[in-house]
């Protein structure tokens, strides 16, 4: 950057310029920072990345830019939560769908369990997903099957909203 400032400089909480732009829904600034080489996967002292911050603040346009730019969608914060786990707690299925469209999303059984924990017990989707978790724990898990279960969860969450 001009003037010698480092693009990934962090404040006292560890937030970078990219993280601040992501949490404030400044899509154009996020795009510009990525073009000049900002570290897309930098995490602050809470373990939050730009992807997690955009998800927490429901900034879909920023999230799309970060996913397209190849952000690591599997980073966990200090609470051991990924952006997908966080998005599953809201009625904003568009956030989860955007994250699931990412080429490097890792869907393991722990992620599905976390997502499933937010669906009420009496919901049919909850029973299907819990059954799937039991089966895939024994038989191994495949990304396609987990994606189907996550899609089912998102639909169930949408119906409950």
TrEMBL record:
Keyword Ribosomal protein included in the entry's annotation: no
SUPFAM superfamilies reported for this sequence: Ankyrin repeat (SSF48403)
Superkingdom of source: Eukaryota
PROSITE patterns per UniProt: ANK_REP_REGION, ANK_REPEAT
ANK repeats: 13-45, 46-78
SMART domains found in the cross-reference section: ANK (SM00248)
Keywords: ANK repeat, Repeat
Pfam families noted in UniProt: Ank_2
Protein name as it appears in the record: Ankyrin repeat protein MM_0045
Organism of derivation: Geodia barretti (Barrett's horny sponge)
Species classification: Eukaryota, Metazoa, Porifera, Demospongiae, Heteroscleromorpha
């Amino acid at each position: 950057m001009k003037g010698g400032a480092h693009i990934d400089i962090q404040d006292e909480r560890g937030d970078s310029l990219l993280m601040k732009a992501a949490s404030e829904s400044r899509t154009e600034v996020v795009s510009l920072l990525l073009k000049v080489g900002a570290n897309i996967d930098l995490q602050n002292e809470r373990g939050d990345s730009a992807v997690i911050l955009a998800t927490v603040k429901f900034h879909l346009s920023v999230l799309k830019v970060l996913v397209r730019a190849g952000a690591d969608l599997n980073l966990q914060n200090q609470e051991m939560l990924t952006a997908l786990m966080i998005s599953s707690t809201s009625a904003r299925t568009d956030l989860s769908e955007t994250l699931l469209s990412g080429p490097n999303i890792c869907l393991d059984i722990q992620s599905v369990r976390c997502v499933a924990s937010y669906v009420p017990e009496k919901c049919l989707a909850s029973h299907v997903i819990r059954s799937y978790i039991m089966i895939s724990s024994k038989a191994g898990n495949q990304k396609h099957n987990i994606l189907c279960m996550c899609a089912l969860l998102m639909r169930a969450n949408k119906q409950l909203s």
